[in-house]
Amino acid sequence: MSENEPIVDDASTNASATIYDALQTEIDDVLVGNDDAIELLTIALLTRGHLLLEGVPGVGKTTLANSFAKASGLEYNRIQMTPDILPADITGTQMYREHDGTFDLQRGPVFANLVVADEINRATPKTQSALLEAMQERRVTISGDTLELPIPFMVIATQNPLEMEGVFELPEAQLDRFQFKHRIDLPDEDAERELVDRFDDNPALGPETIDRVMTDEQLHRAREYASSVYVAPPLKEYLIDIVTATREHPDTVHGASPRATLVYLNGIKASAAIHGRNYAIPDDVKALAEPTLVHRLVLATDAELSDVSPDDVVTDVVESVAVPSTDILTPDEQ
Q1: Among 89, 78, 158, 149, which residue's Cα sits nearest to residue 113?
Q2: Which residues are bridge partners to 104 per DSSP?
Q3: pLDDT digits (tens, 9 = 90+) for 274-317
């Protein structure tokens, strides 16, 4: 890990790419084989999105979330979701002070720049809904008072797809608040061998050994750069065609929402930015199709009985929608 001060870049450079490279390098010193997840986390941070990490126990979901929080330098809180946790345990409450007869506002752990909701599907639907207003409106209501959340604000949630006992499936309204859903798979043999060697050499390796690699000002510049990325009209039509195709697909009852279209657009802008471009290309749209859309689809009963998955539908949609010509997608051709 670097012992230097947070990275410093010239204001004229692509701050988005600089931040992404720094986060990737720093987190890679601890974790192995999570490049795709780090990319999505960076895009979500730059576009004010939220990320749902799914994977079996032991693949490093929580470690990744905590490592990203440490590397970004943002104030963060971790909430361990359980069936007995209450909405007030997340948002906060008014505490009565008996000695003077007044109420004190006790802010909950949601008041942080980055909130890690660990095992979110272990919380009851009522508790899960406490995050809805926070994730969409960036504010919460406590005893009738509406309070703004810190800026930036981001939720990273984790869930285990295997357990069936003591868990509550996230409703569509909750899933739609997540910009991306990413599945962390078991590492291949080479990656696991590298992981074993790395932790054998340094058993203390973990999120606490990660250094901050960016400043608040750099994040602000990175967000501005990402939002300024050019998306040509044919590429916007390509994006809309893909979203529309999820709604018209024979295996879906409900496709992606207009919210999905907007976060999809923001995502491809940030994807282009972190890869060093000031314009988007079709590969940006293709790369973000699955993490953006897969958790937003409601499959028809016949499709579920036939073992069709949302991943299958998204793959079919991307393969069926015509790709626009790349020679009209640069800013020079506006």
Answers
A1: 149
A2: 95
A3: 999 999 999 999 999 999 999 999 999 999 999 999 999 999 99
Does an H or E element contain 118, and which?
strand 114-118
Q: Are residues 200 and 137 in the same domain?
A: yes
233 in the same domain as 215: no
Rounded to the nearest integer, the mean pLDDT of the chain is: 88
Per-residue pLDDT reduced to its tens digit, 104-160? 888 899 999 999 999 998 998 888 888 888 898 899 888 778 889 999 999 999 998
Instruction: Kindly report, residue by residue over 230-274, the tens digit of the pLDDT.
Output: 999 999 999 999 999 999 999 999 999 999 999 999 999 999 999
Take residue 152 and report the two structure tokens written for it.
């930036």
Question: Cβ(56)–Cβ(93) under 8 Å?
Answer: no
Mean of pLDDT values over 80-97: 87
Residue 4 lies in a domain: no
Give the residue from 23, 20, 21 showing the smallest Cα distance to 31.
Answer: 23
In a domain? residue 264: yes
Is residue 197 located within the same domain as residue 278? no
Task: State how far the Cα of 244 lies from the Cα of 332, in Å rounded to an integer.
Answer: 29
For residue 159, give the amino acid letter.
Answer: Q
Contact assessment for residue 7 and residue 218, using Cβ atoms and an 8 Å cutoff: yes
Do β-strands 154-159 and 145-148 pair in parallel, antiparallel, or remain unpaired?
Answer: unpaired
Q: In the structure encoding, which two tokens stand for residue 216, read together?
A: 């608040």
Query: What are the φ and ψ backbone dihedral angles of 146, each rounded to 5 degrees?
Result: -95, 125
Helix residue ranges, H only, 176-332: 189-201, 216-227, 233-248, 258-274, 282-293, 301-305, 310-320
Query: pLDDT tens-digit profile of 62-79?
Result: 889 889 989 999 988 999
**Backbone φ, ψ for residue 19 (5° rounding):** -65, -45
CB count in 10 Å sphere of residue 277: 19
Whole domain around residue 172: which residue ranges?
15-220
Distances (CA, A) of 251 to 30, 163, 313, 318: 41, 26, 7, 15
Domain count, the chain: 2
Beta bridge partners of 105: 94
Residue 103 near residue 95, CB atoms below 8 Å: yes
